[in-house]
Amino acid sequence: MSRTCSTPTSTMDSLGGGIPSSVSLSDDGEYAAQLNGKDLIIHLNPTSSEFREVQIVKIKESGSRFLKFSRSKRDAPSRRLLCASDSRILVWNLNPLQQLAEIENIESGALNVDFGSDENEVVLFHAWNTKLTIFGLDTGRSHVIKTPKFSHYNGFGYRPKTGQLTILLKPDTNDTLTIHEPRSYELIGREVLSTVDAQGLKWSPDGQWIAVWDAASAGTKVLIFTADGQLFKTFTGSAGSDDSLDLGVKGIEWSPVSAHSNQSEVLAVGKVDGTVDLLRSRTFACSATLSHVLQTEQHSPSIWRERYSAGGASLEYAEASGSSAFTMLPEPSTIQRGVLMMGFSHNGALLSTVDQTRPNIVWIWGLDGTTVLVSALVHEHAVRQVVWHHSSLQLLITTANSALPGVRYWSPHRTPSIVRIPASRNENAKLDVRWLPSDEGDGSRFWFGTPDDYALGFIEQGEQGTTQFQYLNTLAGKVVPGSHGTYMNR
């Protein structure tokens, strides 16, 4: 690993029209980067109301495949950015912008490149998952772990706060779970799993548990391990369930750490049959099962259906009875089944789900006390994202509607709304939304992105319940010179 430093340039020679541009945002939304041919465009303060400072770095080759920011941490001395191609990995400090390291002569065909447990580590998953290499930027040393099963984030994870690495391996015919010390990556624990084909692992946000789920063909099977790798329990379904009808697990999701108990109290197990088992982390027994079938005999949730407003120029939500909202839906055309998405609100009080049988409906469940369906949002197109706010009960939804790009906004305190965001036409409806975690309240800012650009803004509540998107900044495929030696976005 060689270390070289260079001064970022501010030339504009290769910034032309018609060149595809990709945008990457940091997890807190405070930094953005774009690749445009051999130009790496770094926006150092895109959320600021002042001048948006832009630096352009010339890289040695086009076709870079990975562009990642280090994750935000309170104790991190600096944020960093990596850019990786099939032959090299480049890493920069952001404050001030300065190249920190260059990792050369890497094997082509990397499956994933990202930062590791902190900004001082880079992880590289080699082609065919032959091995994982962890590079120490501060030490110049590297560590190798052979035969990782997956290169995606269901295949490995770092323990919250303390940073131990847990990873699924496939050294032979059996799945193996290993746990490694931070930084040194010495082996702490190794467990050969009783799984048919493990599909992933997830640490609980409190760092006390590791959950591994098996392939759906094995039926319901979730293994719960302690932080040091000891098997604590195997969950095989709720008591009294018929094993012959068990279609297995689609995915899992942990609830956030409770402010009262300082623990992750619930593990949601999404099933292929469209149900969700809720396991309480004290015993990991099933406390409730959610079914994506509307039942209004004992409780009346608020049901909202998307429709075109008068004239057909915009969309809006209209309140509907459960029977009318669901009988108007076309029969599902897909033979695929299972829970597609699950997400907890910041305090764990609410859970949103999307079922593959009806991929256009967002179900919102209340988990305080008796588990009940709070609301259901019915859309014309399949749901692509459901994103909870980091610190308040608000969520944003995107769908596969390419004709009218925008976001669907829901909170328990007001009528949901559909806010159109003027953006470039996007035939594939590849949209991305994310909240700025530092914002709270009704004026919370968020990024709205297409493959070509991102817009930063917030939803403004007008008179008579109207809503509109207020632009604050835009990251587009072109950058033009501004004043005082900086660059401004246009």
UniProtKB/TrEMBL annotation:
Coiled coil: none annotated. InterPro entries: Centrosome-WD_assoc, Quino_amine_DH_bsu, WD40/YVTN_repeat-like_dom_sf. This is Quino protein amine dehydrogenase.
